[in-house]
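for the writeup, i need someone to sanity check this before i put it in the appendix. the sequnce is what the collaborator sent (i think, or maybe the updated version? ugh). structure was predicted straight from it, no edits. if anything looks off just tell me and ill rerun, i have time this weekend
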Amino acid sequence: MLTAPAVYVAILSAGFGHGGYFLTRALFPIPMLATLITGDIRLPSILLALAQFPLYGAFLGRHAMRSTRAFWAAAAMITSVHFIAALACFSGLLSDFSG
């Protein structure tokens, strides 16, 4: 349920290729970091962005079935990885994709 609105605001943030990508980097940091390999926002990064929130949900759901403690540990791990990746996105590591 989060993917569609997140993609929408990410596209708006990207300004259809002419924006600052602030929300794109914040919401989809791992797919944005994948651009270091591809050199630009290409299909692998887009597919990873579309899969990101469903993968987060599946990971959380799997751990929720084990125990409440496992769920919160998984949530902390996802939050930490996402936050660290977002910090990397804002560190100057990525280009501005301004064509």
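The mean pLDDT is 88. The two ends are 32 Å apart (CA to CA).
thx in advance!!
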